[in-house]
Write a structure and sequence with these properties.
With 241 residues, this protein is an alpha/beta fold. The protein contains 8 helices and 5 strands. It has a single domain, classed as 3-Layer(aba) Sandwich (Rossmann fold), CATH 3.40.50.360. A 5-stranded parallel beta sheet has the order 2-1-3-4-5, sandwiched between helices. It binds flavin mononucleotide.
């Protein structure tokens, strides 16, 4: 199986350590591709909205975003990680999420995202891991993914793995191994079930795109929905990976 990991920091710290523990049992049977932010997507979105309005290839950072996106679309399992920085994702991770706004359901979601699984790994010293995970989950679910596993760790006594008490390290390791175990038992040949909430969100956006297509059939998003057959009977969860 293919796994794509987006590391929200280049630091080989606690977030990295937890991600490595999660991956341990996948290493023998998986092709793992890793991206490190900000190195692999270094520039902020400048808000031109050209990706949404004219097409993603018009983005000034197309080469970076395209490479990551291609890998995400080939992945059976997507892993996204970030430490909590002032209660939210790292700026580097936020930059990537902004660049992928055009893949949200109201714009041009990728059909095969609807059958994928994803895992979010976040941690903090005292507070903020949950809100950080929520930042990432928000994008993943609006990309169309229904099956999302969440790990949120709290370090408490230090920010360096080796300085944590043995009890704390064992607790964090046990928690992440439980999640890893759960995701290792999935049959990735079968697409994940699409949640009813995702279908409802898709339904509302479909009505919006139908209206847009009537007004202007050249409109980038509406044209995309038309070509996917989503303005007719086809749905992304009918032909997922
Ligand atoms: C800029 C910055 C902001 C942080 N903000 C928070 C925070 O809001 N809450 C918290 O509990 N920890 C915070 N931390 C600690 C990190 O979430 C994390 O526990 C620490 O960086 C160790 O993880 P790492 O080795 O993967 O970087 C912050 C760290 C940095 C560098």
């Amino acid at each position: 199986m293919n796994i794509t990991v987006i590391n929200g920091t280049e630091k080989r710290g606690v977030t990295y350590k937890l991600k490595e523990i999660f991956l341990e049992r996948f290493k023998t049977n998986s092709e793992i591709t890793e991206y490190y932010l900000p190195k692999d997507c270094p520039n902020f979105c400048n808000g031109c909205a050209s990706c949404c309005l004219k097409g993603e290839q018009t983005c000034k950072d197309y080469s970076y975003v395209q490479s990551i996106e291609k890998s995400l679309l080939q992945a059976d399992l997507i892993i996204m990680t970030s430490p909590a920085y002032v209660m939210h994702v790292s700026g580097a991770m936020k930059t990537l999420l902004d660049h992928l706004a055009y893949r949200w359901i109201p714009h041009r979601p990728a059909a095969n995202m609807f059958g994928k699984r994803a895992v979010v790994i976040t941690q903090c010293v005292g507070a903020g891991a949950k809100s950080t995970a929520k930042d990432i989950k928000h994008s993943l679910s609006w990309w169309g993914i229904s099956k999302i596993g969440i790990f949120t760790g709290t370090l408490m006594d230090d920010i360096v793995w080796d300085n944590l008490s043995e009890k704390r390290r064992n607790k964090l390791s046990k928690q992440i191994l439980q999640l890893s175990d759960k995701f290792s038992k999935i049959n990735y040949k079968k697409p994940a079930h699409t949640k009813i909430l995702t279908k409802i969100k898709f339904g509302f956006c479909r009505l919006m795109q139908k209206k847009s297509y009537k007004i202007n059939p050249e409109y980038t998003d509406a044209q995309y929905w038309h070509h996917q057959g989503w303005l007719d009977k086809n749905r992304p969860w009918h032909k997922t990976k």
